[in-house]
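Quick start: what a row looks like.
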Amino acid sequence: MTALPILFYLLAGVAYAVAFVRRSSVAGRRATALMAVGVLAHTFMIGMQTMAVGHLPLVGTSGAVSAFVWLLGITYLYTEYATEERAMGVFIAPLCGALQWLPFASGAPAARPRVLESPLFTVHVGSLMVAYAAFALAAVLGITYVLLFKEIKAKHLGFFYDRLPSLHVLDAMNARAVKIGWVFLTIGLVVGGYWVGTARQVAPEDARLQAMSFVDPKVVATILCWAIYSFHLYVRRAPGWSGRRSAWLSAAGFAVVLLNFLPVAYFFSRSHNF
């Protein structure tokens, strides 16, 4: 069961690639169906894990990655439904399949320590996962914007020009995704800071809670993400900062998100390793 979401995400990626290259509406509909089945299988898997351990499987990096992939799939399907545009699926579906391999390889979800039973912890992690899913979508939109911009600038209108939305549409979708992500990231940071203060009173002996500070690598990386996307929203209002520069900022911000998610969380953080 745990491998089914990966299988459907990867199959959807293949179908989206066929639809993208051949501009086939039939392949596109099949790709959407496979992506939806992948999200449903992922939802069922999370539900089964919740029943098995008695709580949402958000504990540990593998649980967070699985929640991120699930939310990314939902976010993408909503975007596809709202815009009737499937071109982004060729990037999103393989990303979901690749990232979901990490929690699959990690096995059963981790047990939840008593200190993580607070609803604030769930709000903290859930908000960050929504933010990261929105940032992933913004990064994909930014990269496709750059690809299309280069093709138009070179006056070789062909592969991407025929298959991607217009630059204006990509830029507007990028801005919307960044705004949503920034709001949830801000909520996650504020709630997380408050939760740490209350959790230290519940479990003062927990060394991981005591290690949580502004110098913890994961906290530093998260604040850096917030600073990048805050700068992104601020400079978009300045002349010359929308479009390509905004797209590159989205890609740079998500690169920090991935570093925070994987190497920092796995190897460097002494506090976020519940």
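That is the whole record. Residues 1-111 form one domain. The mean pLDDT is 85.
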